[in-house]
Amino acid sequence: MSRSVSTEVMPDKDGMFGPYGGQVVPPELKAIMDEITLAYEEISQKESFQNELSDLLKHYVGRPSPIYHCKRLTEHCNGATIYFKREDLNHTGAHKINHCLGEVLVAKSMGKTKVLAETGAGQHGVALATACALLGVPCEIHMGTVDIEKEHPNVMRMKVLGATIVPVTRGTATLKDAVDSAFEEYMKDPKNFFYAIGSVVGPHPFPMMVRDFQKIVGEEAKTQFNEMVGKNPDVLVACVGGGSNAIGLFTAFLEDENVRIIGVEPSGLGLETPDHAATLTKGQPGVIHGFKCYLIQDEKGDPKPVYSVASGLDYPGVGPQHSYLKDIGRVEYETVSDQECLDTFVSLSRLEGIIPALESAHAVAYAMKIAPELPGQNILINLSGRGDKDLDFVVKKMNL
């Protein structure tokens, strides 16, 4: 591993992770982003904010989420010992609630009148709708019609929680298009609206802010794993779309050079086809949604349509910190196909009685692939979400 800049001091004052990140936005929006940055830095340091967030994470979300030793999965793979960080056990069923509570608390402290967001698989939408209901802030969720049909249970949850759902029909009617739609609504009144971005993407300060709220995952895991096993994990594995669950686990271990870190992207129907979302594997540096990152793009530099069986991973960009970590070689980025993901969804359910989100199944699938080659080592996977939302789709797709 080569590292010319400490991973602990990023981003810089301009929101850059090396050459990635920043604020590629119009001047009027830059002023708004700078206002949010200053407000976040001030609010997040207040003892009252930290106490309220900590109390909610413990008593409402149910943190700390446990570390689980997967005995039957380990025996099945016949190699490394496999553990899960059980983010699927959080209230709302995924890691997303960690940053949603933080973002809504910031929005409420700033006096914002509406919180906006995009969602793909619906986990961010459900978590945000939950946080807004709890804290009494109006919530509007933009979601592609393809994902609305596919993730029906989460759509119903958002409606019951009181969120306004805006169906997005443009383009591929999936996550990237939902981001476009939500951003356009945000631009109508950025002074009074707050765009609660659902991953470590977007213009500064959002990649930093979401990371800061998610890094509790890795901080807990480091303490828990050392208490359980007596040392750090040898290998960390997490799925990567925008990259919030992965950066949440990875951050606490970035300075531990003996810990191998792997992010897993969706190769969909194959890297040789257009039907994948393997941004760090196949993309090139570019600009999307107000920031610089690796991007799957056409010859003009515009984002190309992408695809994954997991709605939460089908985004043509990726977090700027992930882009930087790829360049310096600190994190390996690998891929898993739709079929490997679906097979793992069923295998894990039947081996451990744990039904994973399709997103998380990508990480488990890759860990199962390398485990036989790593006897004597310990693999810790971020099981970022549960699969209730995916059941109807998988049962139909796999003819179960």
Overview of this structure, please?
The chain is an alpha/beta fold. It folds into 2 domains: 17-56 and 96-211, Rossmann fold; 62-94 and 215-398, Rossmann fold. The protein has helices at 27-43, 47-61, 71-77, 96-109, 123-135, 145-150, 152-160, 175-186, 206-214, 216-229, 244-250, 279-282, 320-327, 338-352, 358-370, 391-398, and strands spanning 16-17, 20-21, 67-69, 81-86, 114-119, 139-144, 164-168, 193-195, 235-239, 260-268, 284-288, 291-295, 332-337, 378-383. Helix 2 (47-61) packs antiparallel against helix 4 and helix 5 packs parallel to helix 7 (152-160). The radius of gyration is 19 Å and the shape is globular. The model is unreliable at 1-5 (pLDDT under 50).
Number of strands: 14
| CATH architecture call of the largest domain | 3-Layer(aba) Sandwich
- At the fold tier of CATH, the topology name of the largest domain is Rossmann fold
The helix-and-strand class reads: alpha/beta
What's the gyration radius in Å?
A: 19 Å
Provide the spatial order of strands within the biggest beta sheet.
3-4-14-9-10-13
Which spans of ≥5 residues are poorly predicted at pLDDT below 50? 1-5
The residue-averaged pLDDT reads 96
Percentage of residues in DSSP E strands? 15-25%
Question: How many domains in all?
Answer: 2
Largest sheet: 6 strands, mixed
Roughly how much helix do the residues carry, as a percent range? 40-55%
Keywords:
single chain; 400 residues; alpha/beta; Rossmann fold; six-stranded mixed sheet; four-stranded parallel sheet; 16 helices
